[in-house]
Amino acid sequence: MRYGYWLPVFGGWLRNVDDERMEASWKYNSRLARRSEEIGYDLTLVAELNLNDIKGVEAPSLDAWSTAAALAAVTERLELMVAVRPTFHQPALFGEASCEYRSHRRRRPALAQCGFFLVGR
After folding, report:
1. Is 2 helix (H, G, I), strand (E, B) or coil?
2. How many C-beta atoms surround the C-beta of residue 102 within 10 A?
3. Alpha-carbon distance 88 to 50, whole Å?
4. What's the half-sphere exposure (Cβ side, CA atoms, 13 Å) at 57?
């Protein structure tokens, strides 16, 4: 069995709790990723959303791709799964970002494709 968690890129995931004592900051998230790797977690999901839909659009939010690439440089084995929205990217730009990420990790990134559906069914 493998264990993972959602990285709190929004400063937490609970809509009904104002202060979960998790910062939407590089300092907090990088410390969390390094510590989770130390204690045996296998992967973290880095969600890609343009606005903070958990705490409100005025609240801070980390960018998924730049956060994952930066975490790749400060972790050794933690798998970084970027949850991508296919409608946010042109295929060529998505491929380029994926290759850049891979160059930091020396292996393929884990990707979760989110937020699409069939129309007219």
Report:
1. coil
2. 14
3. 9
4. 2
